[in-house]
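Hi Q.,

Before the meeting this afternoon, I wanted you to have the magnesium ion prediction in hand. No need to reply - just skim if you have a minute. The sequence and ligand are here:
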Amino acid sequence: SQSAEVKTNIITLTRFLTEQEHKQKHATGDFTLLCHALQFSFKSIAYYIRRATLTNVSSHRLHTFHLFQLTSPQLIGLAGSSNTTGDDQKKLDVIGNEIFINVMRGSGKVKILVSEEEEEAIIFPGNGKYAVVCDPIDGSSNLDAGVSVGTIFGIFRLADNAEGKPEEVCLPGTELVASGFTMYGASAQLVLTMKGGDVNGFTLDNALGEFILTHPNMRIPKKRAIYSVNEGNTVYWDDACRAYFESIKFPQNPDEKPYSARYIGSMVADAYRTLCYGGIFAYPADKKSKKGKLRILYECAPMAMVMENAGGLAVTSDQRRMLEVVPEHIHDRSGIFMGSYDEVQKVTAIYAKYD
Ligand code: AHM
Ligand code: MG
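Predicted structure with the ligand bound:
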């Protein structure tokens, strides 16, 4: 028939989390509540990014790609409304960071929060058991062009005797209890994984205001001839790195086609595409960025966990398993290669020849 079928039994993120909680014998509900808070921050950020895009289009002035500060507690008074002046503008990445911090504080479940935007770890009073690490709006240099950006997050369960010191969150990705990211694109896509679990994708239904499970048990294809790297850095790469990218661009075997290049420059979007289609994403350490560019705690490790749980791999520039790297400082960086299992193995095999 012509009439669209109405789905009356959808799995929202809320329902998904409840079902997960019921599978855990000793669950207290704290983790579930923390995830509820997290999803609210994603929804808010998604909303403000959409608003900013609208403002930008209607004003025809790139400079207005800011939001006006909310001076009242109501969700009105955004860009375009009266009684606001240019002085009240706040950059979207600042807003994203503030939303994240306020929501995490309000959850009552977090003791330590690390944000890319904050020099120091934020310690909340109270008896939160969790540490949350995040990059609230990654890829923000893309915002003015309306290109997808995203939030990356990881959750650690702190030791019972944790005092709330920044060094207590300098943990390897193997200790993450959950991680994921939300990509703010044509729609907001939330990808979530828990320790030892599947990777599940949710799409924000703007009308319902709910994340709906649309991509259950995401698996990254075992291989795919797509590479994603900032090739403008080639001059800084070491020999192994150059040899690898040469090998996929100029295949020796006549049956093999050269790889396609795809680089958005927004890690969440590049990683999401890699997860969906397969291939490899890299931000190698090089002569200019000796430790790479991306941050271990809230960029590399959460993504590595998603990739591994989806059947892929993630390694550092010295070909160690990304998830086992212990950062010395909360903002430490690492080179990274991640994506399809076979593609990352190829990288490791070539690096082994240059050891
Ligand atoms: P940011 O945290 O300052 O936004 O930088 C991180 C971003 C990633 O999203 C992306 O993968 C990378 O920087 C792109 O860097 P480059 O412009 O050097 O290619
Ligand atoms: Mg970032």
